[in-house]
Structures are given as structure tokens and as C-alpha cells.
Design brief:
Two copies of one chain form a homodimer. Chain A is built from seven helices and three strands. Chain A is extended. The first copy, chain A, has 182 residues and is mostly helical. Helix content of chain A is 63%, strand content 5%. A three-stranded antiparallel beta sheet of chain A has the order 1-3-2. Chain A starts with 6 loop residues before the first helix and ends in a 16-residue tail after the last helix. Chains A and B meet through helix 1, helix 5, helix 6 and helix 7 of A and helix 1, helix 5, helix 6 and helix 7 of B. Chain A binds a DNA duplex (30 and 30 nucleotides) through helix 4.
DNA sequence: TATCAGTTTCGGTAATTACAGAAATAAATG
DNA sequence: CATTTATTTCTGTAATTACCGAAACTGATA
């Protein structure tokens, strides 16, 4: 009937669910994603409930979540009024979409809060200097990483992949970088 | 007595604990890390218990965990037999250490399992072709990212930072990459 | 308007995870 | 060897999170 009948597909789905929960993603959400990723046709919510033994309401919520990540898309099949769902199949696009959303949800708020904290502490001598410095440095560090990410993200996919294939050879373009290890 | 008296330090510690739990890290573990990061002197376990209102046993376990991540180091202070602990203060080193450990714990096992799955499915015609292909592609994708990471990791810290500062300008060194967005 | 599909909300429950506190063990110190 | 300190293990509990099932609500369709 569907890929859930294949034992290896089941294993994959369980592993994917496990991995999700190690990274703060609801197990059902990642399992549903794995199921859709392995499916060669759009599935409707009812099928997903049955395949993974989940309650209808949770599947609905999880599908919303996956659409929020932009890695699952709603489609329709002819002669069927029900919504159907398909997963993003390009793994690079999928990866970038997940990173973008987690940045939005978990990194951006932390940068905001650290920025507020730093600002609030500025110039107040009753607060130990090293506390101010270290919170400020953390704020700066995360901001720097984020800025780098935004720049890299703006590159074409093909350029990015080419850069990745260069691997450590990118170092050649940095002026004073003779050694390779540290 | 210590940084825990500073309201802003408390806020930082709570935020850091929150963030940890969003990324699959025990809240106590990340709070202890935040406390040590803000401290200007080594702390012993008892102090940490008091500062964060945690049980001695949990602090002990959490400190082991942080040492496992290589972002907290054991030290001693003169005239005191007790173990004391300090956090890695170089944020770049800290970041790389965390990434290395999470790769080891969560990425490497997944690559292994996907590899086994792929191998086990090879050539078996009763398994739908698209299932074999997609699991194989996921395995390949994660392996590629990991290989790239290992290469980049081997570069000197200064080279890495220089590359980061280049931002999207690194694209200049890729032959056919005229456009900037996609 | 009756029906169907979907979403959202809510109360209760199951499962998981985090934690405290005690006890046993180990290891180092003087 | 007694003492101090640290670690580990265990049991029970608290807290959190995940989930089901029902019901209410929305919106589209025929």
C-alpha cells in the first residue's frame, strides 16, 4: 500500500524520529517528514495517521509544523478533495530551509536578548567588568556567525556546492595561511 | 560572593539554559556552563550547587558532561584540595568543541546506520527503487557535509576567521559564479 | 443547507526526562 | 588509617512533554 510496508523504510523513519528528538524536534514531526520523504506519491493526513499510528490532531499539527519549516508542501490529487502532502526532495534545499527556520526561532531571539542585556549593562560600574565583557563577546560572536551565514546563504546553490567541493582548498585564497592544521 | 548575585548574570544563565534545552542539551548542564563562563575564578561543585540550587549529584554529572564536551576544564587552587572548574573562554574554540562532540554523538551514528541500510538494500528488487535511492541520497548528503566539515576543521583558526570575514566574497574564487542570489 | 475535510482547542493520560537525596565506592591527603 | 572530597548508582518523585480522543469551529463543495 505504501512505503511503510518496507521494513527498511520503517527503520529509516524510526532513526529519523530519534535524530529529530536529539535536536529539539518533536519525534512525530520528524517521523512524518521521513515518511513523506520516502513516499513516491502525495499522502493525505489519514494515511499518515494509519502508517505511523498517530492521532489525527497531532498529524494535523505536525504537518503545519513541517510546512512552517518549508520542507513539506501541500498539493492536491485529481478527484480527491482532501489535502495531500509531499516532502522537499532536494536535500540541499531541505537543509537550508531547516537552518533558516531554526535561526529564526532560536538564534535571532537569543541575539536580541543578549543585545538588550549588553545595552542595559553598558557603563554601569556596579556590574563586574568581566561579566559585561563576556556577555558582550558572546553577543558579538553569535552575531558574527549569523552575519556570515546570511552572506553565504545569499550565494547561488551551485556556487555553494562548488565551494564545498573545494573543501580545505579554499584556504589558498587567504593571504597568510601556510599551515593546514592547528 | 559570585557572579550569581548580578541580576543580569542570572538572566544570561537562564537564557542559556533555555537555549540548551531547545538544542537537546540538559538545562542544568547549560546553566552550569553559563555560570562558569561568567565567573572570573574557578568554582568548586559546592558553589555551583548553591548558586543554581541544584543537587550535588546532578552538578557532578553535569560537570562530567561539560568536560566530555571539552568546554570545561578541571583546575586546582592553592590551599584547597577540592576540584575546581573553569569554562573555555575562547568562543571560537568553544563552538568548535561543541560541534565536534555533537557530530561524534549524533551525526556519526546516523551515517553509520544509513550506510548499513543502504548496503542491506542494495540489489534487492523487492524494495521500491525510489526508497533505495532516497535513503542512499540522504546517506551521501550527510557524508558530504561531514567530509567538508572535517576539511574545514583542519584549517588554522586564523585562516578560518579570515575566511569568515570574507563572507560572500569567497564566491569570487569559484569559476562560474556571476550572480549573487538564487 | 447538508456534508466533508481540516484545524484548533481542551482535558486527561501516558511517557519521558530531570532532579533530589541517600548510600556506596573510590581516591587522594595528611 | 582516618578524613576529606569526589564520583557513581539507586530509588522515588517532580516536572515537562507528547499524545490521544472528543468537541467546537472554519471553510469549501455540491
Amino acid at each position: 500500500m505504501s512505503v511503510i510496508q518496507v521494513p527498511e523504510a520503517q527503520e529509516y523513519i524510526l532513526h529519523w524520529g530519534e535524530m529529530g528528538s536529539h535536536w529539539g524536534v518533536n519525534r512525530s514531526v520528524s517521523q512524518i517528514h521521513a515518511l513523506l520523504y520516502l513516499s513516491d506519491r502525495p499522502l493525505h493526513a489519514e494515511e499518515i495517521c494509519e502508517a505511523l499510528s498517530l492521532a489525527r490532531s497531532n498529524v494535523s499539527t505536525a504537518l503545519k509544523e513541517l510546512q512552517g519549516y518549508n520542507i513539506v508542501r501541500l498539493t492536491h490529487v485529481v478527484g480527491d478533495r482532501r489535502d495531500h502532502f509531499v516532502a522537499e526532495l532536494d536535500l540541499w534545499d531541505m537543509f537550508m530551509a531547516i537552518v533558516a527556520e531554526r535561526k529564526r526561532r532560536e538564534i535571532d531571539p537569543i541575539i536580541t536578548r543578549l543585545g538588550e542585556l549588553s545595552e542595559r549593562m553598558a557603563g554601569r560600574d556596579e556590574i563586574p567588568e568581566h561579566v559585561r565583557h563576556r556577555i558582550g563577546r558572546m553577543h558579538e560572536f553569535i552575531s558574527t556567525l549569523t552575519t556570515w551565514y546570511l552572506q553565504v546563504r545569499s550565494l547561488k546553490k551551485s556556487t555553494l556546492i562548488a565551494l564545498m567541493k573545494l573543501g580545505s582548498k579554499v584556504a589558498r585564497f587567504v593571504p597568510g595561511s601556510s599551515g593546514s592544521t592547528n
